[in-house]
Design goal:
This protein has 208 residues and is α+β, with helices and mostly antiparallel strands. The protein has a five-stranded mixed β-sheet. The protein has a three-stranded antiparallel β-sheet with strand order 1-3-2.
Length: 208
Amino acid sequence: MSPRRSYDQYCSAARALDLVGDRWTLLIVRELLAGPRRYTDLHADLPGVSTDVLASRLKDMERDGLTTRRRLPPPGAAFVYELTRRGRELLPVLQALGAWGQAELGERRPTDAVRAHWFALPLLRSLEGQGVVEVRLEEGEFHLYVGAEEGPVYGDGPAPGEPDARLVLDAGTWEAVGRGESSLADAVRDGRITVSGEGTPAKALREA
């Protein structure tokens, strides 16, 4: 485990960055907001991170009380990492950082990796109500737990049951929404996003 580096400044922002300012740490949090993940799953969804760096960051995050590590019961018997309550409190930090970074997205570059669920946190900022929202993109599917105060914020793949809302949109639309060029409500009104379902998130989008 690497020794903790510190800015040695009596400032809450500096203290926070002592814990989460290292490269990859906040992106690991982004992945763990989906719930418990195996090391191999994290490595697959963090293209570009080395195995040594990922292992080091996970150990640091466990030491600092942001994550825990536990073994799944048989037949799984694999170790998974998950956020503590303290780690989950980074959700609004990531959402604010994502909102600030919209202007930096620009057009997708040929070298840019992409995962469907990376749109989950930006989308969550625009959804109202409470319930499960399933999102279908050309890159894949994911689901969101809108209004949830505990547990996973999102998950890969279709919703585990009938969702309260289902959104279907193409790559161009989600990129425009992700860059802040179009609001979610505008894309729904323009017919670029198809909304189905009778839950409060679906009704809020149709009435916006």
